[in-house]
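Record 1 of the preview.
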Amino acid sequence: MKKILVPIKRVPDYEVKLKVAPSGESVITDGIKWIVNPFDEIAVEEALRLKERGNECEIVVVSIGPEGASEQLRTALAMGADSAILVKCESAVDSHVAHEILAQLYSQDTYSLVIMGKQSIDSDANQTGQLLAAKLGLPQATFASKLELKSDWSEVQVTREVDGGLETLSVSLPAVVTTDLRLNEPRYPSLPGIVKAKKKPLNIVEASSLGVDLTPRIKIRKLETPAVRKAGVKLGSVVELVDKLRDEAKVL
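->
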């Protein structure tokens, strides 16, 4: 049976107001709500839709992080994924560490396709998919807004958004595809799906057992909260607007 690998990342809920830690090098995570990275959730949904179109396959979701990330893996399983792998890692994970771990997992099985979010909403690096494809020597298609898989699993046709409009690529499999926002609308896990997810296999692997370098290449030096935006000003005429743009905003 063909297999699709879908990496997902645990990220803070985008509706949570985060606070910078006293050290200035991280945010305070105690007691916050964690979710599946929205772009990765889209990747899970697309893998499920490919399967539902009659493409017989097994969908494997994988996450790298602390034991608590198993909750996000269970969410993906409740959506419909078949099995999950948690690579337990308590240290910081940047794009370099993530792609090294994912490459090692990929080499331990036979996957026909890797679908993953184009970026995570916490670091916004947009690098892991590209680094993984380069590491594995696989074709890649980024920012996918539409996927069409050939029935014989020989290639996938990917429509992607570029500055000039839309670009369509035919990529031979196996390959790495990263998803954009307009690819689909992820489903909500159903109650039966949540019940079934508890019985689906979730394997835990220690990152240290994979034989990869777990040293991040990126170090956060300082975090700052955004400056408070000034209240808007209602102007009485176009002349006043031009004066403001010229004298205060300095854009004219």
